[in-house]
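Late entry, evening session. Most of the bench is empty. Finally got around to the prediction I had been postponing all week. Sequence below, unchanged from the version circulated by S.P.
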Amino acid sequence: MAFHNDLGAKGERIAQEYLISKGYEIRAVNYRHRKAEIDIIALHENFLIVVEVKTRTAPTIVPLIQLVPPSKINHLIRAANYYMNRHKVHKEARFDIVYITMKAHSYDLEHLKDAFYHF
């Protein structure tokens, strides 16, 4: 597996652990529908949470939302709608970004809730 794939998988595991520690119930990981892949689907409070995980080895200087282009946002929305219809989820959807910056022996994590409202 390529380095960027290993890095992404590690970031997704860290994000899952973080979300679980905050009371989120993980429902799906790497959920695919057509051209979209949702990194994490979770339930929290009264929401279905769609999480895009971004993992880097250096901090970004751009706002987190700019890491997810509009075309990806559209794919995520369609995939979330499909998931909700297929699994009969009757909750409001929320789209979050978890951004992880890996360091030598640790990491920094930022969680941007309602990320698409910041767009």
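Two things to note before I forget:
The mean pLDDT is 90.
Residues 3-118 form a domain with the Trna Endonuclease; Chain: A, domain 1 fold (CATH 3.40.1350.10).
Will write this up properly tomorrow.
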